[in-house]
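Lay summary

Proteins are chains of building blocks that fold into shapes. Our project writes down both the chain and a compact code for its shape. Here are two examples, one after the other.
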Amino acid sequence: QVQLVESGGGLVQAGGSLRLSCAASGNIFSINSMGWFRQAPGKQRELVASITSGGSTNYADSVKGRFTISRDNAKNTLYLQMNSLKPEDTAVYYCNAIIVAGALFDYWGQGTQVTVSS
């Protein structure tokens, strides 16, 4: 079992920045990859960025060059630095962790709201 708690969301003007954090606890040593997803009203949840245990990263085209995913293994925390925010970035952002151990185990945080005003 893995528990994930997000923080850092809020209201920001277009062009501003926010940093999201995701504190992980539990069976963290078995985590293969972690990521950030987002879901805007009326839309499907989509991948924003992910990072593997080896440090390889992947970004959605819509956030490349603006968002940076990182992890602090000493603090068991995942981050998403979001710069040059746009109104279309408004969504609930979710932290995700995947463990592959015979089967795939998927864990989610409760989500944190990010609202970007124009």
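And here is the second example, written the same way.
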Amino acid sequence: QVQVVESGGGLVQAGGSLRLSCAASGSIVSINFMGWYRQAPGEQRDLVATITSGDSTNYADSVKGRFTISRDTAKNTVYLQMNSLKPDDTAVYYCNVKIRGVLGRRYDSWGQGTQVTVSS
């Protein structure tokens, strides 16, 4: 079994910063991929940023230069540092983790989501 728990959301004024965290736990052998997605009301869930086991990163055009994804391998944790936040960044942010577990099992796990609200 694998669990994924996000934290760090909240309410912030435009121009402010927030840092999201996502920790994976359980029967983990290795983590191949960690990513952040977001979903605004009435919208589809969109990619925000991803990072691979080789530390290759990818960002949505709308967040490039403002958001930074990073990971702590020892803690099985991924972070999303969000700076210069805009009202359009308001959404529920979800963490996705692709894990190789014991006995060769593979998990594609999502967190429960954390609300980020940016006021103008």
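What can we say about the second shape? The chain has no helices and eleven strands.
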